[in-house]
Amino acid sequence: MTSPRTQAPDQAAARTSLANGALPDGITPPMPDIEALSRNAGQFVEALGRSAARMLTPEAQAGAPSGEINEAVKTLGQIAESWLADPNRSAEAQAKLSQAFLTLWGTTYMRLQGQPADPVAVPEPRDGRFSDSEWSTNPYFDFIKQGYLIATRWAESLVDEAQGIDEHTHHKAQFYLRQLTSMLSPSNFLPTNPELIRHTLQESGANLVRGLKMYEEDLAAGGGQLRVRQTDPSGFEVGRNIAVTPGEVVFRNDLIELIQYAPTTETVLKRPFLMVPPWINKFYILDLNPQKSFLKWMVDQGLTVFCISWVNPDARHADKDFESYMREGIEAAIDAIGVATGETEVHAAGYCVGGTLLAVTLAMQAATGNRRIKSATLLTTQVDFTHAGDLKVFADEEQIRQVEARMAERGYLEGSRMANAFNMLRPNDMIWSYVVNNYIKGKPPSAFDLLYWNSDATRMPAANHSFYLRNCYLENSLAQGRMVLGNVRLDLKKVQVPIFNLATREDHIAPAISVFEGSKTFGGKVDYVLAGSGHIAGVVNPPYKPKYGYWTGGPVKGELKDWIAAAAETKGSWWPYWFQWIEAQAPERVPARKPGGDALPSLGPAPGTYVRMRA
């Protein structure tokens, strides 16, 4: 290898030029191992050919998400047509973009001449894509970064300011543009990312070979559709080091296993407690490990805790509808709790769509007089979908018909489809950061319990999912008193039981305003509580090591901003505050109960068998 002292003049000049933008004076970057680089490049091209061949197979082509692509093209096309319809506004918008780039070129030229210049565009404080110092110190990469930010924000302004576009189309356009701009970020590509260039040169391209191997594995795992791994799945096993709170399965039917957890206190509250998790993912988000387990914490406070574990449905469950999930899920669980404990009344909590189902059950019980649920806790739950989150972009008539047609082929919606939809809500964090880490840096993701749970997808039965999309997201029939189940019209205003309604400030699935407005639909007293963070971290915030606080206030009325302005902030977890609320409903205690009592024999230890079914 040639030493820096004996380099040819032009090579030395090139290195000096690079050093002026990237490295301290007098330091030159090391030369890569050319032989290794060539060898790895050959292996990379060979593996790339194998991947391309696999993607062109009929099986892969049959699963291609053409519907989503067509929808994105159509939606963004409507935005473009809106601007082209007014040549003057279009010209003004183009002039703004041109002026921004002229300013950027001027500041870049000043920097190349060694003069200081303020940036034209800077990343958002929480945007970690451009954290490497060379994005700012090297004028070349700084120009690429700022150019991307300018173009992205200009495109966002076009969507926001488009005229003659309905609200739903606006929302879809913002969503699809976010997918596009996230994908096109220069941080995602080797030639335009200084960190990736350094990393590849340091490894002489071996990272690309490892990355493409992982890419091939993920493509195969997805049956021709890329399933980006987010964690090391070998690091976890349900029942071994995740979902380990002791208990027994005391009841099972076609839809649920009911787990009763073993007590850890001498006495327990007399009224038992039922947790209704969402069926769109596994229940153990509430039991990741002993330190973060909401279920274990409730047991330790002296609650007799039962938790539904939903089946991972297949074609046999195609006709299981929303009413089935209510009757064979919540109602069947309450029946079993009565057998196990002798109690006819329960506290109940529902998380996300599990809370929506719980609200439906409350309305049904109010209509029929079978009022066994005496208090309800709703965790990041929507009952009024007027201000629903980003998932609403998938819920118009045309897209729902496409989903229904796809479900009709198998009787269910594949778990990967729902997982992809959730990942698309935060594409930079949940998709592209892993693409870069796995496939370009060639680094396998670390073992992380939350992401293991996130990747443990479940399927949706056709009848249930269709009802949910149409009645909640599309028609908002529950909030409007028009939902009908079992020939019974449901009215949330008839629900008089106390309700603890938890929202989180940064929730993109059940926005805080949606939960706030939903609180107004109930007929009884609602305690609206606003926690910090988002849909998961805001809920799973244990008192042992709380990361976020929460806000409490008075009655739910007026606008959310006014409620927040008057609310009291409390540092720490909302869990103790909630338990005080639960205990106040029915403080009587009895000796601790063993799982199943004397009436229901154990069907196996927790976490049961349904939760182990993979999609």
Automatic annotation (TrEMBL):
InterPro entries attached to this UniProt entry: AB_hydrolase_1, AB_hydrolase_fold, PHA/PHB_synthase, PHA_synth_I, PhaC_N
Region Disordered: start-end pairs: 1-31
Keyword Isomerase: no
GO CC terms: cytoplasm
Gene3D superfamilies found in the cross-reference section: alpha/beta hydrolase
The Poly-beta-hydroxybutyrate polymerase N-terminal domain, residue ranges: 126-298
GO annotation terms (biological process): poly-hydroxybutyrate biosynthetic process
Molecular function as annotated in GO: acyltransferase activity
Domain AB hydrolase-1: 302-541
Compartment(s) of residence: Cytoplasm
Keyword terms: Acyltransferase, Cytoplasm, Transferase
PANTHER family per record: POLY(3-HYDROXYALKANOATE) POLYMERASE SUBUNIT PHAC (PTHR36837), POLY-3-HYDROXYBUTYRATE SYNTHASE (PTHR36837:SF5)
Protein name per its UniProtKB record: Polyhydroxyalkanoate synthase
Lineage, opening ranks: Bacteria, Pseudomonadati, Pseudomonadota, Alphaproteobacteria, Hyphomicrobiales
